[in-house]
Amino acid sequence: MTKIITRSLVALAVSSAFLLTACQNSDKAETSITEPPVEAIDFSIPYERYTLDNGLTVILHQDKSDPIVALATVFHVGSSREEPGKTGFAHFFEHMAFNNSENVPMGANRKMIGELGGTRNGGTWNDGTIYYEVVPKDAFEKLLWIDSDRMGYMINTVTKDALEREKQVVKNEKRQRVDNRPYGHTGSVISSNLYPEDHPYNWSVIGSLEDLQNATLEDVKKFYAKYYGPNNATLVIAGDIEFDETKELVEKWFGEIGKGQPVLDLEPRPVELEQTISLSHEDNFAKLPEVRMVFPTVEEYHKDSYALNALGEILAQGKRAPLYKVIVEEKKLAPGASAYNSSREIAGEFTIRVRANAGTDLDLVKAAIEEALAKFETEGFSEKDLLQIKARQETQFYNGISSVLNKAFNLASYNEFAGSPDFLKQDIASIKAVTKQDIIDVYNKYIKGQHYVMTSFVPKGQLKLAVDGSKDAGVVEEKIVQGAEKDIVVKDEGDYPKTKTSFPRNEPPLGKTPLLTPPQVWDHQLDNGLRVLGIEQNELPLVQFTLRIEGGHYLERPEKSGVAYILSELMMEGTRDKTPEELEDAIGLLGAGINVEAGDEDITISANTLARNYDKTLSLVEEILLEPRFDPAEFERIKKRLLTRLKQQEGDAPAIASTVSRKMLYGDEHILGIPASGTIETVSAITLDDVKAFYNKNVSPTVSAFHVAGDISQSEVIRSLQRLTTSWDAKQVEWPEYKAKTADEQSQLYFIDVPGAKQSVIIGGQLTFPGASGDYNNLVYANDRLGAGSSARLFQLLRIEKGYTYGAYSYILRRESMSALMAQTSVRANVTKESLDLLTNEIEQYKDTFTQDDFATTQNIVIKRQTREFETLGSLLGVLEDISRFDLPLDYLEHEQQELSNLELSDFKQTIQQYMNPKRMDYLVVGDAKTQLERLGELGLGKPIQLDIKGNQINN
């Protein structure tokens, strides 16, 4: 699988640590500063950098904390290197590069890494392309073989058939990400109007379907020759490596790749608008009106970009942020507002976005934005706001380098786009140097009184909600025509010219099997019944912890579904002694992150903090848990926001499928047949008293567990929990009983009409057993070769072989009460019938086609995969949560390895026969009824039962 990503997602650690965008929280009040400013982080990622004779920059970083190795290869080529009429080439080429090369067989790139226990992917953005993998260290040389062959020896294998097949995959990705989603076209509308036609940012990364369809084999080869030389790339290898040995291997596999054409850096090219441009579009899938105002700004690393990043947070985030204050609190036009700067290699843009409440006139929203900006101009903001931003940086920095892959992203990104991995320090210094005056200056320079591009995307038939005077955006919708695409079979015939090399580039053997040491888990129970589990890990000065309270949605009355969800949101809106603003202040000054979430069977409070701030962070969590404020105004705002979100989901086919598939699985009488967030009807009926009653009845230490991982000892944790021991009273929680739906002997096929859908969402599901069942692991193992990733059969069949989809998977939805086997894909509309037929046939034949080789492959994958499961604090918390949630022994990971080693092929086949029967699965298709409904009746699954978007049967 590949994906379109942004520059900030490539430098994942950089973005999470330093790009101060609208995703963070801040407060705007002038209050006393009780915490000293965080000093500049004196930290670097140690590395060695050198250059091969062919120009490839290689960066090595050693990290022996886990027996894994990560590779990240960044090519300095994205959509900005394309030209009008030939857009989408960079992203399309990324797809092609995953197929095969001269010495690596077709499909091996996608299949082999997963089967070696690793993970892989790639991404394209405006300015670059990245390929990345993480594998157990014994597969390191195999990874060098695969990656070097892709870099130097793949273009001769690109055939016309391969080209045409991959076009269908990329088209499916565009339909899934853009054409079939609410507001999907907004980005391309803004880009094409903000930037001149000859500007490299004028078109979207995925490009146009017309350009893609017209791409020729010669076009692709020219693009490769121009931009894919090793001299236009940075290769980072990070993890459990030895430098001398690694250098020899890099020279062996990459050293004789031919040098490419010289590629000049693009010069910064920020733009100016001569007038404000206002555009509108009636969105077939949107249910809410949305307005965006986009101002041109500057390129990344420009001095002003740092202040613009901070400006976005100050304008939109926090209870006193002007956009929030005016739009959400005072005028109640929307549940939220966002503002953020996005600076890329040669230009940037500052966006203000508001998705308004249903039926809201966007002229009112535009006026409210202008009023909020005027408020910012007159009232300003405090030094404390900057302090909170900087306090978070240190915590987020360490989180951003918690994995070897993130370290590789950092090193590669800084080297390729800033000239050196050491630019990390300058980047931090620039962020910390931002002053109040800098932020005021960039506001006056780039926002106040400046022209912008404005989009009004409104639901179909509600053009009157668009901003007055806006012109039609000119969005061209693709028409899906039955039989328009031909099925293409791509054969790995090998009849292409082979490049001469100094040694046979055959697949290297695996290295020595890495030793796997599961983490040591400690376990303790407090006097009030709260169970405490922990793992001490001292790699970074961080602590993460979760308090998981059993129940959640499962304990709600069905007619009041959504109560737990609203409670989880409301718990973050102040405490008995702290207003919502004061709580935000307290969290922000610690640089911590605290979240409360409600799920099907729990409510979880999670926290992420520097080790030195653990006690203070825990104190805030205790206050949130034990002293909720239950603010009436915040309750009404949260409820309205949830209703707005539920309304929007009515136009999103994947969201509709997810919601209704629950009802299909569990039936009308089971609470899990209703989403944890509730429905419009159930949420509308919830009162603040309902939320208080749920809290008083169901939040108890007797059904809770505290999990902690990081730089803290067991004794320190137990000492810190004294208040929870004495102040959190135990209570008896009553558990309702629900009868799971009985599986029919004959599949049912359901259909929901989304008129004009470019894709059909297909979901199959079958209930299995409670999550703690001893059969759970066996079913996970048995499913691996069917649908657990890109190397599995569903993906290989529906995407690689047929080109019908962007991805196809099966998985086990693990729930304590009753789990389910699920299969899911989104396919282009005109192959809906064919795709469902292939999916059901593949599952039906699975038991008979599952071989001894599949069995051996699965054993290897599962065992090797565990080398990557203890790397981050988040993954360690996952281990602890599984132990408490499903009552597993502390050393369950070792037991599972032994259990897997003792299984035989017959055990797998028995599990498949028992739990993977397509004739007992029900299927749901969400798509365009006009073109697809009648065809589905030919499958032998009976006449499709038509449902509305809420899962109610339609008489037809």
Automatic annotation (TrEMBL):
Residues 215-391, 686-861 form the Peptidase M16 C-terminal domain. Residues 1-22 form the signal peptide. Residues 58-182, 539-651 form the Peptidase M16 N-terminal domain. PROSITE patterns: PROKAR_LIPOPROTEIN. Pfam families: Peptidase_M16, Peptidase_M16_C. InterPro entries: Metalloenz_LuxS/M16, Pept_M16_N, Peptidase_M16, Peptidase_M16_C. This is Pitrilysin family protein. SUPFAM superfamilies: LuxS/MPP-like metallohydrolase (SSF63411). Belongs to the peptidase M16 family. Keywords: Hydrolase, Metalloprotease, Protease, Signal, Zinc.
